[in-house]
Amino acid sequence: MILERVKKVLADGAEAVVEIIQMPDEERGRTVLRSLEHKDPLWKPHIERSVAGYFSQVARDFYFLAFSHDAPIGLGYLQVGLENTEVGSMGHIYTSPEMRGKKTFVAVIESLLALFEKQGGKALFLQGDIRLYGRFGFAPYGNVKLKVFGGYPFEEDYFRPQGAVAIRDANWGDMASTEALLSWPGGDVGRIGPLDVYRGTGFEGDFIVALSLVEYGRACFKAATDKRGHIGATAYLLKGHSPETSHLGWVDVFAHPKYEGHLEPLLLSALQWAGTKGVKLVTAQACGSEQDKLKVYKSAGFGKRAELPWRVAEGDKKHHTVLLEKKFE
Ligand SMILES: CC(C)(COP(=O)(O)OP(=O)(O)OC[C@H]1O[C@@H](n2cnc3c(N)ncnc32)[C@H](O)[C@@H]1OP(=O)(O)O)[C@@H](O)C(=O)NCCC(=O)NCCS
After folding, report:
1. Which of 24, 161, 261, 297 is deepest in the core (most CB within 10 A)?
2. Whole-prediction pTM value?
């Protein structure tokens, strides 16, 4: 569905139109797919599903298509989860090679930011070069970039739980919410590793891999949310793929300090899933300095299996990694 057509003047004085499209839209969906043929194969199934409206039960997927004389010349993508409309994740920014340097990119980004703000967005995340996005007010946030709107005090407010915290399965509408949490730059070094399968989901591409494995029945991804739908803690448990390893699981948990009390129920709910899938042995890792995580694993019945010295570096400081495991009866 085309929501709006915004007229823009390019650097050479020519007129461009940016169409704001909410998916699904069959015709514009085809244009988007053609414009994104260059994307990494990791993204292709996600883009195809997005334009087909597959995520519309849990998210709003917007595309910003710039046209010059009816020919598509630029593109941008914005996803906002339905449960938490205050955060958004954007990407797929592209200008056709022959149209570069004419401010098509600026026209697309301006339309995207205006829509996000108009719909009540407060914090927008992207992966991208700060030299391109700094001018729009984006600033580094962990490994990604963040722009806040209307002076929103993100650090003070976002992770302060409001109302009761609930635990639920993560879904395709959680891309921005998990990006907000898993890219959070605070905390000690142990939070940056060492089990990439989990912590890596701060990037949208890793989120797609993580949730695809859930769809294949190979993993469980749990989230703790407050009444605003803000995710403050998650647990991810990956099960072995082959017949030889299907009895094994690897788990990791992460919480913003304000959600630390929710780590244990999250972990238990991931372990419960593993128990129903025939997993007999679950391995976890924690940095030696992560006392909170170690405590949670121990109270869930994990025992220390080994200590790997100097695995995680924080400047000159090096931390041990503790391997823990739990056997199921
Ligand atoms: C990056 C890209 C979208 C820019 O599109 P564009 O329509 O040519 O950009 P604009 O004409 O609106 O230029 C906007 C500004 O960004 C600058 N810019 C463009 N590409 C840049 C780059 N790679 N690094 C730093 N600055 C860049 C331009 O010089 C211009 O600055 P100015 O206003 O000071 O002159 C385009 O080159 C592209 O599609 N690249 C391949 C895909 C990509 O890299 N996407 C971004 C991923 S986050």
Report:
1. 297
2. 0.93
The response to whether residue 45 sits with its C-beta less than 6 Å from ligand 1 reads no
Rounded CA separation 138/262 (Å) = 31
Give the chain's domains with CATH numbers: 2-121 (3.40.630.30), 166-176+188-327 (3.40.630.30)
pLDDT in tens, 273-311: 999 999 999 999 888 777 888 999 999 999 999 998 877
CA-CA distance, 304 to 317, in Å (whole number)? 23
pLDDT of residue 187: 60
pLDDT of residue 202: 62
Closest by CA to 323, choosing from 293, 292, 279, is: 293
DSSP state of 256: -
Structure confidence at residue 293 (pLDDT):
86
Report residues of the chain scoring pLDDT below 70.
187-202, 314
Mutation pick for ligand 1 pocket among 99, 105, 126 (CB with most ligand atoms within 8 Å) = 105
CA 86 to centroid of ligand 1, rounded, Å? 27
Contact 239, 219 (CB under 8 A): yes
Distance of CA 211 from the midpoint of ligand 1 (Å): 31
* Residue 204: predicted pLDDT: 82
- What is the residue-wise DSSP string for 301-313? T-EEEEEEEEEEE
Strand positions, DSSP E, 29-151? 59-68, 71-81, 87-95, 123-126, 139-141, 144-148
The C-alpha atoms of residue 198 and residue 202 are separated, in whole angstroms, by 9
The number of the ligand 1 atom at minimal distance from the alpha carbon of 103 is 12
How far apart are alpha carbons 65 and 80 in whole angstroms? 18
Return the pLDDT at 319: 80
Ligand 1 pocket member 94 (CB < 6 A): yes
Q: In what order do the strands lie in the sheet with 231-239?
A: 166-169, 219-225, 231-239, 248-255, 281-287, 317-327, 303-314
**What gap in Å lies between CA 130 and CA 153, rounded to an integer?**
21
